[in-house]
Amino acid sequence: MNTRPPEAIVECKVCGSRNRVSPRNIGRSHVCGKCHTPLQDLSTVSRKCAICGLECGNRDQLLSNGSLYHQSCHLKIIQEIERIEQQSSAHQAEILRLSRVMQTEQSLSSRIGRFVSGRVSKIPQWRNQIQVLEREVQALKNERLQRSEVLRGLYDYWLTYPPDWEERREEVLRNAQTCENCGSGHGPLHVHHEVSISKGGSHSVYNLCVLCEKCHERRHGGRAFKYGEDAQPGPFAKKLNTLRDAIGGGKLIHFRYRKYDGAESVRSVRPVNFQRFQGSLCIVGYCYLRKAQRSFAIRRMNELKVIETPGTCYDKG
To answer: What is the DSSP secondary-structure string of 234-282?
Structure first.
């Protein structure tokens, strides 16, 4: 008598429905009977810390690309850089001291003193010490560079102006002497985000350009621009935090959505996770309007709120 293998109950991560699935099909081609989503992990942004690689929780820090990091890991890197700088400064001070001692030892009076007393010169010993210290300083420099690259990658997607913003701004201005819009080289030059911070733009050099003061004001709707206005979390950061809370709490979200072609709709979605698609950070989940898995660019979502049950969903116009 043939017996069928026992079936497993698998909950769809998108719509939440329960499906009976043969164990050998889990994670393969089987799809949800309700929303037709594959019963496997969605291709989403990693939930691991961008620094240490360990799992992050819902309350850990969020970046504008959807990645997470532990605050303790961030502080640890800063402390390590401070330790490296202090150690390097101490080594360089010792190199300077030994160099001065060697200069004194090589003076005529010191040579005469050694000749009279029969004292052996310590110059070879000091020279060896300097060489050892110089190698250690170079090793510390390389270690600091590695730590700084980790921080720079983190600060590329900081939700507000990053701690190293002044360094980035000066770096961009060093490589550009004129406004990239009008070509003017007169007056103060500003560094502008092509995709604004409030819309999830990064601080990478690929998203930064140099503008004169007038062109910069035009890009900001004619108002005078002041650095630091985005020092507090903007609309994009607030949406990210709302979405993360909804995912962590198993809640639904309701929002107005405007597609790239201008079509508008009102949606209720059960969010699953963040996903990057063609350079945009999206939310993936079960859409109650389309009754299927969909992804939505976060910067195109407006009037976002967390709800308990699906709200009214419809296409506008």
So the answer is: -HHHHHHHHHHHHHHHT-EEEEEEE-TTS-EEEEEEEEEEEEEETTEEE
Q: Looking at residue 27, what is its pLDDT?
A: 44
At residue 74, the pLDDT reads 95
What's the pLDDT tens digit per position in 149-207? 999 999 999 988 999 999 999 999 888 888 998 888 777 888 999 888 888 889 998 89
DSSP conformational letter for 224: P
Q: Residue 99 gets which letter from DSSP?
A: H
Distance (Å, rounded) from C-alpha 2 to C-alpha 230? 67
The CATH number of the structural domain formed by 1-41 is 2.30.30
Delimit the domains of the chain by residue range.
Answer: 1-41, 71-155, 165-219, 235-315
- Contacts of residue 112, defined as CB under 8 A and 6 or more positions apart, other chains included, come to none
Report domain 235-315's class.
mainly beta
Which residues, 6+ apart, have CB-to-CB distance to 132 below 8 Å? none
Provide the pLDDT for residue 96: 95
Q: Do domains 1-41 and 235-315 have the same CATH topology?
A: yes
